[in-house]
Q: What sequence folds into this?
């Protein structure tokens, strides 16, 4: 019989915060339309850099058993990153995603170089325009989305998908987050074009590879001052 084990780990990483339509106290018309278009309760996503997260991993001695995790404590960046139509990529206070309307997933990035590159990517994306051209692509069936890499006139991504290479790409929220995952080597399967990624697709990809850890209501949250973080 497999033996249950637990281990406490610490890593930098990112929290992906998925806005759940059913948890909104007063959804707007636009949010209702988005729900219909993407056919999902998940209608938006934001990303919050996290420094030195402490989390618990529970697993069994059998290699085939899926690991389960629990976040105990996070030191959060003071700003989260997201994108809104007509506004583009902006930052908001980290506390915005701790209001009960978001499903939170912590994704550890075990290589510090990758984490720092991801943080620079987000910082350099601030001010980028919103990618309205690719929104309908994200609503296509997954079998179609995984079969195509969409032209740059729709994806609006730069050739290297790096804003600091010269030109800002235009992105929507989940497109930005999947680009971040690819940059930080969070996901092994990179066949989905970020321009085709809806919030639910991002969560499905993270869950499929067991890359994310659920953040519960009982985790301790500390927000670091601007002078305390690095990149």
A:
């Amino acid at each position: 019989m497999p033996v249950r084990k637990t281990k406490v780990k610490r890593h930098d990483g990112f929290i992906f915060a998925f806005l759940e339509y059913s948890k909104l106290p007063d959804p707007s018309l636009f949010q209702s339309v988005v729900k219909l278009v993407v056919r999902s309760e998940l209608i938006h996503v934001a990303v919050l850099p996290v420094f030195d997260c402490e989390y618990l991993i529970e697993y069994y001695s059998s290699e085939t058993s899926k690991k389960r995790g629990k976040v105990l404590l996070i030191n959060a960046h003071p700003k989260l990153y997201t994108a809104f139509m007509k506004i583009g990529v902006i930052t908001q206070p980290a506390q915005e995603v701790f209001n009960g309307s978001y499903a939170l997933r912590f994704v550890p990035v075990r290589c510090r170089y990758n984490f720092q590159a991801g943080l620079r990517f987000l910082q350099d994306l601030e001010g980028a325009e919103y990618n309205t051209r690719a929104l309908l692509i994200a609503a296509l069936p997954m079998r179609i989305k995984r079969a195509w890499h969409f032209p740059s006139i729709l994806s609006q991504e730069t050739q290297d998908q790096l804003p600091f290479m010269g030109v800002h790409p235009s992105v929507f929220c989940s497109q930005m987050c999947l680009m971040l995952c690819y940059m930080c080597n969070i996901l092994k399967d990179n066949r989905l074009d970020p321009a085709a990624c809806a919030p639910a697709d991002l969560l499905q990809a993270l869950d499929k590879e067991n890359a994310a850890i659920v953040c519960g209501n009982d985790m301790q949250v500390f927000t670091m001052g601007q002078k305390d973080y690095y990149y």
About this structure: The longest helix spans residues 112-125. Confidence is low (pLDDT under 50) at residues 160-166, 226-231.
